[in-house]
Amino acid sequence: xxxxxxxxxxxxxHSERVIIDFILKEKMKIKDMTTKDIANATYTSPSxxxxxxxxxxxxxxxxxxxxxxxxEEYLETHFLDVDANFPFTNDDTIMSIASxxxxxxxxxxxxxxxxxxxxxxxxxxxIIRKASSIYVFAVSNNGLISQEFAHNMSRIQKKVTICxxxxxxxxxxxxxxxxxxxxxxxxxxxxxxxxxxxQALKANGIPIIALTNIGExxxxxxxxxxxxxxxxxxxxxxxxxFSTDISFEYILDLLYSCIFALNYDQNVERKTKISSMxxxxxxxxxxxxxxxxx
Length: 294
Hints:
This protein is α/β, with parallel strands linked by helices. The protein contains 13 helices and five strands.
């Protein structure tokens, strides 16, 4: 759930609700306002803002304000010219659809990049680096998206297991290797079977990396580190999961690339040597595709 949604739904007193209505209306305009400024504007007291923060499970008003402004800044940037749910209409020509879909995918990657933080990415990379193997838990097409990640990681000798039978997800989590780690891929963060997977992983002491939306959800609450993805699509009302898919792909490609870079020269040498042996005889008549002769 987003902070703005929690503010709207949480049980507040009348004076607290006055402040909530004010900040939800003013949004980014409260950035340079102190507690005293907001209290004066709403005819309340600074202590009321502190009570609101505590009810929202924040240490203080400044922490709540910073998180709220960060969320609003994200929601107000990117996707200004395209709707993630319906990027084209029945009036669009095929070339118009082509252009809008390209714009959507570019926006999704930029959107996702804006959510990546150094510390969270570094923590996720170190968890994977130390793990003897990686288990990816996802349902539906998220499992399919994860296959390319598993394929790439296998090329640098990192074992990735993806369970494709939903009924076996919890079983796999319960049998996860002691020194392994888990990646949970979930847009909503509330898929019931994945909640059971998390319980099993936590019971076994398996560190969890979550790929999920920008709000607070079951998956993010229990993960050791959370990598946020583009959060623009509704659950059902959409043409396809265009922005979500490209966002998940980007984060998984990013994790693979960071792991690759830890032993860059060795991985390049190994991957090139093996590929040249396996694909011996493959050629192209196009110069840009031709391999250099060593």
